[in-house]
Design brief:
binds zinc ion; L-fuculose-1-phosphate Aldolase; alpha+beta
């Protein structure tokens, strides 16, 4: 881990943060209760995000995100990958502010999840990865 300020600048001389640091900082800036942001590169997130929109319907684990029931549809936003992270962050910003999702995916790249602490963010990331794995399996079978 590298400590950075809210603009993504390293607080430790000589350490260079990931190019994707701005996406993490965007979540901290927009949602002050967020205490941790995690990003993963799973096969399920990478593959599903390249196939178009991702919708989770009827999964019990949706309740892990605070929903009262499994009987609902929840969309996971998918954004086109972009090596210009500032431009990518600008595309993500409107949805984050209008209707905060349970996480999001960058197409062909990976998933972002967040929470009030590292443990909470990890728990949400695990739930998202579980949903993505279920959806990948479901699509293989249908
Ligand atoms: Zn990445």
């Amino acid at each position: 881990m590298i400590n950075v300020d809210i603009l993504g600048q390293s607080l430790t001389p000589g350490q260079k943060p990931s190019a994707e640091t701005l996406l993490h900082c965007q979540l901290y800036r927009n949602f002050p209760p967020v205490g941790a942001v995690l990003h993963g590169h799973s096969v399920a997130a990478t593959v599903l995000s390249m196939l178009g929109p991702i919708r989770f319907s009827g999964y019990e684990i949706l309740k892990a995100f605070g929903f009262a029931t499994h009987d609902m549809d929840v969309d996971l936003p998918v954004y086109e990958n972009d090596q210009d992270i500032g431009r990518l962050a600008a595309k993500i910003d409107p949805l984050l502010l209008a209707d905060p999702p349970i996480g999001y995916v960058i197409s062909g790249h990976g998933v972002y999840a967040w929470g009030s602490s590292v443990e909470h963010a990890f728990w949400r990331l695990e739930a998202l990865e579980f949903l993505l794995n279920c959806e990948l399996e479901r699509r293989r079978l249908t």
